[in-house]
């Protein structure tokens, strides 16, 4: 079964990416996780994302495009990246999600993908 793992980080974690003395530890933790999950052979795709300040959101209301800078909602955590993995069941997906460096501070959403048509 395929699952998407969506990684959410706090504003502090986004700041740590390149504006902080903790940058090396931040990227070191992510590199170790990416190396580990990639070596497992379960990754089917994924990417890290730039910070939420680079986002543009679109809604169509009454046939008109409404475009705004930033994500849809102000939140304590923002989407930082994702993997699509193929594992036996939700328990295996949860085990990989629990290893993500953002899990203790932000969070990881696990969602099954739609079946291929």
Automatic annotation (TrEMBL):
Record-annotated YCII-related domain positions: 1-113
SUPFAM superfamilies linked: Dimeric alpha+beta barrel
InterPro entries per the UniProt record, alphabetical: Dimeric_a/b-barrel, YCII
One Pfam short name: YCII
Family (UniProt): Belongs to the YciI family.
Name this polypeptide is given: YciI family protein
Organism: Kaistia terrae
């Amino acid at each position: 079964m395929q699952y998407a793992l969506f990684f959410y980080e706090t504003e502090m974690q986004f700041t740590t990416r390149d504006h902080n003395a903790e940058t090396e530890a931040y990227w070191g933790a992510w590199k170790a996780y990416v190396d580990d999950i990639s070596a497992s052979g379960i990754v089917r795709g994924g990417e890290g994302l730039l910070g939420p300040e680079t986002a543009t959101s679109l809604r169509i209301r009454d046939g008109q495009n409404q475009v705004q800078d930033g994500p849809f909602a102000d939140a304590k955590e923002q989407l930082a990246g994702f993997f699509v993995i193929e594992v036996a069941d939700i328990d295996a997906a949860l085990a990989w999600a629990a290893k993500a460096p953002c899990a203790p501070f932000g969070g990881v959403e696990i969602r099954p993908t739609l079946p291929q048509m």
